[in-house]
Structures are given as structure tokens and as C-alpha cells.
Amino acid sequence: QKKGYHHKVVITEKSDPEASIFGQVDEYGPIVIEAINDRGQGRLWSEYIQRYHYLGHRNAVGSQQKYFIRFDSGELLGCILYSASAWAVGCRDKWIGWGKYERVKNLHLILSQSRFLIFPWIKVKNLASKVLSLSAKQVQKDWLRRYNFRPVMLESFVDKELFAGTCYKAAGWKYLGITTGRGRMDRYTRYLSSPKEVYVLPLCEEFRKALQEGASR
């Protein structure tokens, strides 16, 4: 059992590995970022994450949106989750230039990409960076429809001992620095985790003004 806040996820044959897919992303049809809005799909999403993501499944806190990643021809390629942003990240907060009051007031305008999984049998080059670009556009629309406001920035945390962050760089995300090793939602320095590389993606030109002052809907 992987560490974290979990509910029991039952592994079934529905998430068994499938035939490998190889090639370049431009050899295939369009990629679909499919929002998950029902319990059946949600359970299958959790099953894939628990089975194949190195962090496993844990319950996201606060606002969230889960997605399946597919080719438009139907093949399932992976999963992605956007959820509430980390409470405090030193390099991020310094880069934004906000104080504690502004952070408390406007933190909801940042979304955390807290899970990103391309299935291990999918060997399509440049797929991950393409998904990052498409999902950044899709989540803005879905967040507005579901929560009545648009996020102005995305963030993600990459374990540098396991990943190089190449797909984030290729998709235009900006590297900011290293976390201190506290958990994402840790307000009181009680939960330690391994240091992660911090990447962000501004979603509008005036993102910093919105985060420092607040954005209108």
C-alpha cells in the first residue's frame, strides 16, 4: 500500500495492461481530454491510478477535476487530475510576489496538476507534452463551468529522482525551483515528503496581477 490518504481501491481486470502502442504523436488522430463526471468512470480512473501511478491513489482535497486521456478513435492512454493548489511553496510564492494575505485570498486561482499518468504500455513520443498543452486549455473551460471562475496558473511537482521534467519543459511550463520537502497541503510543517521540482504554467498575461490583487469572474 502506497503512502497517503487513501480509500480502498479494488483492482479488477478492467485496468489490465493492453497491447502496446508505439510511434510519434503526430502519426495518430486528435487527442481527447475527457472530463470524468460520473462515479463509474471515477472508480475506473482511481483503479488505474492506484495500479500504475508511483504515488498511487489518494483522495484529493477541495475542488478537483479528473480526466481520461484518449485518442479520438477510443484508445485509452492515461489519466490526469487537477485539484486545489499547494498551501505554500517558497519558490512559487516568491516568484508571484504575493504576501500571506494575498495568498490566502487568491490561492484558489492556481490549480495543481496532482496526478499525471501515461500508461506504461503507451510508447508514443511527444504524447505527454501534447497532453499537457491540451489539458491546460480544457481545464480552464471545465473549471469555469463547474466552479464559475477561471484559474490563472497551473502548478506541478516533479520528483527529480524519478523524472527529468522533459515533457513540462517541452510544453512551455516554467521551472521555479525545489520544494522544502513539506506535503502539498501542510500548513503546520507536520507532514514531510521528498523535495520536488516546481513547474508552473501561467494561463493569461495578467496572471501575476490577478494573484496579487484578485481576479473577476
Describe it.
By secondary structure, this protein is α+β, with helices and mostly antiparallel strands. It is built from six helices and nine strands, in the order ββαββααββαβαββα. It has helices at residues 39-52, 90-96, 100-106, 127-147, 166-170, 207-213, and strands spanning 21-24, 31-35, 64-71, 76-84, 110-118, 122-125, 153-158, 174-178, 197-202. It has a seven-stranded mixed sheet with strand order 2-3-4-5-7-9-8, sandwiched between helices. The protein has a two-stranded parallel ribbon with strand order 1-6. A hairpin with a 4-residue loop joins strand 3 (64-71) and strand 4. The longest helix is centred in the middle third of the chain and has 21 residues, at 127-147. Mean pLDDT is 89; it is low at 1-6 and 183-192.
Number of strands: 9
Quickly give the structural class: alpha+beta
Distance between the termini: 41 Å
The geometry reads as: globular
Strand/helix succession: EEHEEHHEEHEHEEH
Average per-residue pLDDT, rounded, comes to 89
- The poorly predicted ranges are 1-6, 183-192
